[in-house]
Design goal:
The protein is mostly helical and 155 residues long. It has one domain. It has seven helices and no strands. The protein binds zinc ion.
Length: 155
């Protein structure tokens, strides 16, 4: 899989995504399984609180996941419906080219923005990713593809 320890990530993103991939983030579902919570249900919506629920389903997250999926489709040149939410927890991206690396970066940054910064709205999500993009110093991505991604983020 794509390497979470890659230097395109900052340390916060690396540790956040690591917890997500290894399912050690304290969701209600996980806390209940170790008797640290009396409920497995999400505080916001009442459905079972799993990591995928938090990132791709709960409330405003659906629109964030749809935007991420659009961006990944551009990078990976795959139809959107072939990209399932598990890409977030099982980032099975064979990192070969700059575009695959960009896809991995988008997933890692998204996970940190949504889970680490507890973002609730699509607008805040877009701003979070754009802010992070502005901090990227070395240009390891393909400019043409990144411009397509930015267009989606600024839409
Ligand atoms: Zn929820």
């Amino acid at each position: 899989m794509g390497n979470i320890s890659h230097n395109i990530f900052n340390s916060e993103e690396r540790s956040c995504w690591f917890k997500v991939v290894h399912d050690i983030h304290p969701t209600k579902d996980r806390l209940m399984s170790i008797n640290k919570s009396v409920t497995e249900n999400c505080e916001s919506c009442g459905n079972v609180d799993t990591i995928l629920h938090r990132i791709t389903v709960c409330q405003g997250k659906k629109s964030m996941w749809h935007l991420l999926r659009k961006m990944l489709a551009v990078c990976l040149q795959k139809p959107e419906d072939r990209l399932t939410p598990d890409i977030v927890i099982q980032p099975d991206l064979k990192v070969k080219g700059k575009n695959t690396l960009l896809a991995m970066w988008l997933v890692g940054v998204t996970v940190n923005v949504i889970i680490g910064e507890v973002i609730e709205s699509l607008e805040r999500y877009k701003i979070g990713v754009i802010n992070r993009f502005n901090k990227v110093t070395c240009k390891w991505f393909e400019k043409i593809t990144m411009n397509k991604i930015l267009k989606l983020l600024l839409a």
